[in-house]
Amino acid sequence: MPRGLKGSPLMGLVSAFTAQILHFYIGYRVFSDWSLHAFLISIYFSFLFAAGHALHEVIDFDADRIANIRTSAVVFGKRKLWIATHVLFALAFGYLITLMIVGIISWRVALPYVLAFALQSWFYIKLPSIPDGEELFGYRRKYMIAWLLATVAVTGLMYWK
């Protein structure tokens, strides 16, 4: 039975990261021409997407292990990938701050995402060292709402000057 990239450790994460650059650009091109700034911004969203994919692998750990699908979580361990999930989110945060420092985005754009990351970090530290089941779904639900609200705030700030 073919398993695609999901059955190759790290390839799910790599494909999630690289595909998100394309996803971002498909949407971006509807409104504007290609630019280096937009490409650099797409990398931020790619970090977020890859982190979300890593969490998905953690959630699917038991089913993938039983099905003998060699995901990153199965090969490297659930706890390690759980930690890597937040490391990827932290890398996205650091990259966002870098984009702000070098002037690619303004602090008005960065601030809602900084607050979303802070809130997500708080959700993360409130969980047990290896959360399971509903804890993982609840965590994902909460952080996705935080990121959604950040994006709504950024959209509003872009039109309110």
Summarize the structure.
With about 160 residues, the chain is mainly alpha-helical. Helices cover about 80% and strands about 0% of the residues. It contains seven helices and no strands.
Please characterize this protein's 3D structure.
It is globular, with a radius of gyration of 17 Å. It is mostly helical and 161 residues long. The model has no long low-confidence stretch (mean pLDDT 91). Helix 1 crosses helix 2 (36-59). It contains seven helices and no strands. The longest helix is centred in the C-terminal third of the chain and has 27 residues, at 133-159. The protein has one domain (4-159).
Number of E-type strands? 0
Mean pLDDT: 91
Enumerate the spans where pLDDT stays under 50 for 5 or more consecutive residues.
none
Task: Work out the helix count.
Answer: 7
Percent helix: over 70%
Inertia-based shape: globular
Secondary-structure element series: HHHHHHH
* Cα Rg: 17 Å
Counting structural domains, the number is: 1
SS class = mainly alpha
Strand content: under 5%
Distance between the termini: 55 Å
Largest sheet: none
Per-chain topology:
Layout: H1 11-31, H2 36-59, H3 61-66, H4 72-76, H5 78-101, H6 107-125, H7 133-159
